[in-house]
UniProtKB/TrEMBL annotation:
Residues 86-164 form the P-type ATPase A domain. This is Phospholipid-transporting ATPase. The chain crosses the membrane at residues 29-44, 251-274, 305-324. Residues 10-53 form the P-type ATPase N-terminal domain. It comes from Dissostichus mawsoni. NCBIfam families: ATPase-Plipid, ATPase_P-type. It is a multi-pass membrane protein. Component of a P4-ATPase flippase complex which consists of a catalytic alpha subunit ATP11A and an accessory beta subunit TMEM30A. Its main location: membrane. Its cofactor is Mg(2+). GO terms for biological process: phospholipid translocation; positive regulation of myotube differentiation.
């Protein structure tokens, strides 16, 4: 049976609303208590009317049910709009329209530019000759940059409905799992009745919720649908949040209920002690009926006990809940009326969606925040570049637009001499060629005008990394313009307005372990070059010549300023060496097993003996007053954690700029790179000894991250390592206390950065802290759909 593509985020259905909502309502101790009292008043002869308990209870239950029913109706509307969204499917050689919910695994889908993928898809072919397409995954991991995906090599030439419909293939893949960055599968394509097997990886997978960009159309086959998509598996079902005050009220109600039962028991006992004397058994004003005289004493005692319970039930006033609810309701309006929380640019005020959580805001101990779009504007600005010690500062360039007040190129240092001129131009060419930037030959992208200089419409750059766009735009202002990639050749416009063509032979893609990327190009004169750019720690050890000391000094200066730095180097290649490199890379790319490992070994062997050219500095703009806000939160005693899907280097630079990490902060790394060198067990115990040695095993409450007489620690952890830490312990392993050790390390750090986090992992982190020994109040803040699980998990969610 093939699973449908129906999406459902609602809590209730028409059939289960009443029982399910009643269960939620009577989870409140007070509601359950008053229900019992009401039923007792109906069953036995009591001194008070059932209306006194039933009417207030009916009022509270009805109002709450209407409110929750309306909220769920809105969720139903949102789900229906998604499920009924039209999708184009290839059937019998023609494109037909279907509702999204009717998609099935194996259906071939036709998607156009700016459309959002309705399910997880394997890319078969695209409008591009090279079989690539570009997508944005902002709703999944918060990154608004463009990512490149690749069609299956044997099907990328099929560009019509008839050709795609003629494909005969089977796909084998892993069971659905929530990791956004991993996918393992295989496609068997039948050509002349002989199957040809090709590996499938994350680069072939298009995720539900992502959007097609800068590609006219694609054909793709549905692989995971409905609640089995990675987006759905990362979605945490919505449950009703309860504040700490409400939970404590429930606890106090249990105490008062025990007091009430005790009073009723004592009074029942005293009544029968009093009535033990026959002269007091039946007072003249309250003679028993014959039925009462014949009733068993146990039944009489139980009835009397219930009567005393009803008589004393006002020790728990039903008006208490009504009063608290009214206070919360009115308090939410004070938040909405607060002028300090009014956004003048958008003309919007704060909106309180759940008034139950107002009082939690004053008790927050941990703040979990997303990075992209929350701490930062995701707006990269080229600041400067350094070539052999000479510093160049272009106009303020920000994502393709010249900032106000910018005039002409500004060079701080004097120009290099004629001998160094060639090195300088080679640096600029390296940055124009060593990237994955694509050129959008239009004036508008996403409805926003870009790349407009002096009123003229020009091309606009897009890339999987926003800082690559900033670097290419920076080079444009310094005289070297990247024009396009055409027929496998990269074209750039030099200072003399001459077009230079370089054949793009290989792209050695960036990864977080290598922390660098490279391209191999052939110039029009036949010379072969490897251009490489990356983090200083990954470039300097591989450099054999160049002005390393001058460049290193400038990189360290820019790092202190909180700027994102990259170093640029090159290596000339002989034809014989290039042939050897091609053989090495092709062997690694065709490997079905350990492909990533073999590629990493090949890259490592190629990217060596480099000649250093220079370095660049780019700034990721923070939201207004973000750094001051984090500093204020720290002073208030709150711990701030950044949870992001972004790369470690990018996130760390933002943490320094936002004052989450300071220059004197000792950074502790719990990352894949380190756990490959040591076992996770050893790394955790090393970090634990480091922090506990400094703080002497100081208790959490007495620790202050602002203390001046002890080292300030900051922890960086990535998603893969977190998965290993959170993995359930095996009986024959010693990993049972990994979570406890991890929590102990985190408690002794003033700030924590979690990078490469899947949406569900963000929620797991919040849940881990919530469930810790101290049960702190948590707050989560984010701006995208990838933050929903985290926001729902925290005590207070802000979006």
């Amino acid at each position: 049976m093939r699973l449908s593509n129906r999406w459902g985020a609602q809590l209730y259905t028409f059939w289960n609303f009443v029982p399910k909502n009643m269960f939620e309502q009577f989870r409140r101790v007070a509601n359950f208590y008053f229900l019992i009292i009401f039923l007792v008043q109906l069953i036995i002869d009591t001194p008070t009317s059932p209306i006194t308990s039933g009417l207030p209870l009916f009022f509270v239950i009805t109002v709450t049910s209407i409110k929750q029913g309306y909220e769920d109706w809105l969720r139903h509307k949102a789900d229906n709009s998604v499920n009924q969204c039209p999708v184009h499917v290839v059937q019998h050689g023609k494109v037909v329209r279907k509702q999204s919910r009717k998609l099935r695994v194996g259906d071939v889908v036709f998607m156009k530019e700016n459309e959002t993928f309705p399910c997880d898809l394997i890319l078969l072919s695209t409008s591009r000759d090279d079989g690539t397409c570009f997508v944005t995954t902002a709703s999944l991991d918060g990154e608004s940059s463009h990512k490149t995906h690749y069609a299956v090599q044997d099907t990328k030439a099929y560009n019509t409905e008839e050709e795609v419909d003629s494909i005969q293939a089977t796909i084998e893949c892993e069971q659905p799992q929530p990791d956004l960055y991993k996918f393992v599968g295989r496609i068997n394509i039948y050509m002349d009745n002989e199957p040809v097997a090709r590996p499938l990886g994350a680069e072939n997978l298009l995720l539900r919720g992502a959007t097609l960009k800068n590609t006219e159309y694609i054909y793709a086959v549905a692989i995971y649908t409905g609640m089995e998509t990675k987006m759905a598996l990362n979605y945490q079902s919505k449950t009703q949040k309860r504040s700490a005050v409400e939970k404590s009220m429930n606890a106090y109600l249990v105490v008062y209920l025990c007091i009430l039962i005790s009073k009723a028991l004592i009074n029942t006992l005293l009544k029968y002690v009093w009535q033990a004397d026959s002269n007091r058994d039946e007072p003249w004003y309250n003679n028993r009926t014959d039925t009462e005289r014949q009733r068993h004493i146990v039944i009489r005692a139980f009835t009397d006990f219930l009567a005393f319970m009803v008589l004393f039930n006002y020790i728990i006033p039903v008006s208490m809940y009504v009063t608290v609810e009214m206070q919360k309701f009115l308090g939410s309006y004070f938040i909405m009326w607060d002028d300090d929380m009014f956004d003048e640019e958008l003309g919007e005020r704060a909106v309180v969606n759940t008034s139950d959580l107002n009082e939690e805001l004053g008790q927050v101990e941990y703040v979990f925040t997303d990075k992209t779009g929350t701490l930062t504007e995701n707006n990269m600005e080229f600041i400067e570049c350094c070539v052999d010690g000479h510093i160049y500062v272009a106009d303020a360039i920000c994502n393709g637009q010249v900032m106000p007040g910018a005039t002409s190129m500004d060079m701080i240092d004097s120009s290099p001499g004629p001998g160094a001129r060639e090195h300088e131009e080679l640096f600029f060419r390296a940055l124009c060629l060593c990237h994955t930037v694509q050129v959008k030959e239009e004036e508008t992208v996403d409805g926003i005008k870009h790349g407009i200089h002096q009123g003229k419409s020009t091309s606009f750059y897009i890339s999987s990394s926003p800082d690559e766009v900033a670097l290419v735009e920076g080079m444009k202002r310094l005289g070297f313009t990247y024009l396009r990639l055409r027929d496998g050749h990269m074209e750039i416009l030099n200072r003399e307005d001459e077009i230079e063509r370089f054949e793009l032979l290989e792209v050695l893609t960036f990864d977080s372990v290598r922390r660098r990327m490279s391209v191999i190009v052939r110039s029009s004169t036949g010379e072969l070059y490897l251009f490489c750019k990356g983090a200083d720690s990954s470039i300097f050890p591989r450099v054999i010549s160049g002005k390393v000391d001058e460049v290193r000094a400038r990189v360290e200066h820019n790092a202190v300023e909180g700027l994102r730095t990259l170093c640029v180097a090159y290596r000339p290649l002989s034809p014989e060496l290039y042939t050897e490199v091609c053989h090495m890379l092709n062997g690694a790319k065709l490997a079905l097993h350990d492909r990533d490992k073999r590629l990493a070994e090949a890259y490592d062997a190629i990217e060596k003996d480099l000649i250093l050219l220079g370095a660049t500095a780019v700034e990721d703009r923070l939201q207004e007053k973000a750094a001051d806000t984090i500093e204020s939160l720290h002073k208030a005693g709150m711990k701030v954690w950044v949870l992001t899907g972004d790369k470690m280097e990018t996130a760390a630079a933002t943490c320094y700029a936002s004052k989450l990490f300071h220059r004197n902060t000792q950074i502790l790394e719990l990352t894949t790179k380190r756990t490959e060198e040591q076992s996770l067990h050893d790394v955790l115990f090393d970090l634990s000894r480091t922090v506990l040695r400094q703080h002497g095993g100081m208790a959490r409450d007495s620790f202050s991250g602002l203390s001046g007489d002890c080292t300030d620690f900051g922890l960086i952890i990535d998603g893969a390592t977190l998965s290993a830490v959170m993995r359930p312990a095996q009986e024959d392993s010693n990993s049972g206390n990994y979570k406890d050790i991890f929590l102990e390390i985190c408690r002794n750090c003033s700030a924590v950065l979690c990078c490469r986090m899947a949406p569900l992992q963000k929620a797991q982190i919040v849940k881990l802290i919530k469930a810790s020994e101290e049960h702190p109040i948590t707050l989560a803040i984010g701006d995208g759909a990838n933050d929903v699980s985290m926001i729902l998990e925290a005590h207070v969610g802000i979006g």
